[in-house]
Design goal:
It is a single chain. By secondary structure, the protein is of the alpha+beta class. The chain has one domain (8-80). Helices cover 19% and strands 37% of the residues. The protein contains one helix and six strands; from the N terminus they run βββαβββ. The protein has one helix at 34-48; strands spanning 8-13, 16-23, 26-30, 61-64, 67-70, 78-80. The protein has a three-stranded antiparallel beta sheet, with helices on one face. A three-stranded antiparallel beta sheet has the order 4-5-6, with no helix packed on it. A hairpin with a 2-residue loop joins strand 1 (8-13) and strand 2 (16-23). The radius of gyration is 13 Å and the shape is globular.
Length: 81
């Protein structure tokens, strides 16, 4: 758990950092390997998706909590609110 923000967790998976941030029931999961993210989503689906399927969004441009986060440029991130 991140010592500065209790809604952020980090874990090293396959030698790289995986970060999960959340607000209420909205999560943002990041890792350099999309397979790691997909595995986490599958595990969450098994545990929490029984009553209602999880809604996911993946790619270089994502919407999260009213923001549009653009990862299309390698060294820069654009966030539009």
């Amino acid at each position: 758990m991140n010592e500065y923000n209790k809604c952020v967790v980090n874990k090293i998976i396959n030698g790289k950092q995986c970060t999960i941030i959340w607000h209420v029931d909205d999560l943002k999961i990041s890792h350099v390997d999309p397979k790691v993210v997909n595995n986490i989503i599958k595990r969450l689906e098994v545990k929490f998706g029984q009553e209602s399927p999880l809604v996911t969004s993946q790619g270089k441009i994502i919407k999260y909590l009213g923001m549009c986060i653009d990862y299309t440029e390698k060294e820069s991130k654009n966030i539009d609110v």
